[in-house]
Amino acid sequence: QMQLAESGGGLVQAGDSLRLSCAASERSFSTYDMAWFRQAVGKEREFVAAITWSGGVIDYADSVKGRFTISRDSAKTTVYLQMNSLKPEDTAVYYCAADTRRLGLAGRSKYDYNYWGQGTQVTVSS
Q1: What is the per-residue pLDDT across 33-63, written as a single tens digit (0 to 9) for each?
Q2: Percent of the chain scored above 90 by pLDDT?
Q3: What is the distance between the alpha carbons of residues 34 and 98, in angstroms, rounded to a whole number?
Q4: Considering only CA atoms, which of 88, 43, 83 is closest in space to residue 61?
Q5: Residue 101, pLDDT score
C-alpha cells in the first residue's frame, strides 16, 4: 500500500515562500496523478493544485494561481508545491494525495484521490 509523506511546512510571515514536498513510497508513483489539498481550522478540505502523471496537465485553484507551482520528480518519487507570496489566508494543513486510477484527470475533487498523506502545517502570520 502506497504511503505519502509531506514535509516542508512551518511558520512564515506574509510575503514569504515555502516549498512543500511529498515523498511517495512506490516507484509506480510515476503513473499516478497527484494533487495538493489544504484544510483550515473549521473549514472543508479544499483543492489547491493537481498534476497528471505525465505533467501534461496542471491545474490550480483560483486563490493560488500565479503564486503556487506544483511539480513532480519521478526519479525521486516526489511531488512539490512551491508557495510564493504567502498570505495569512493560506494558513492550513496541507495534504498531498494520489489518484491511482491512471486516468490522467488532475481532478479537483477530494473524492478523485484514494491515497493521502498525514499533512503538514503551514502558518502565515500577518
Answers
A1: 999 999 999 999 999 999 999 888 999 999 9
A2: 85
A3: 5
A4: 83
A5: 82
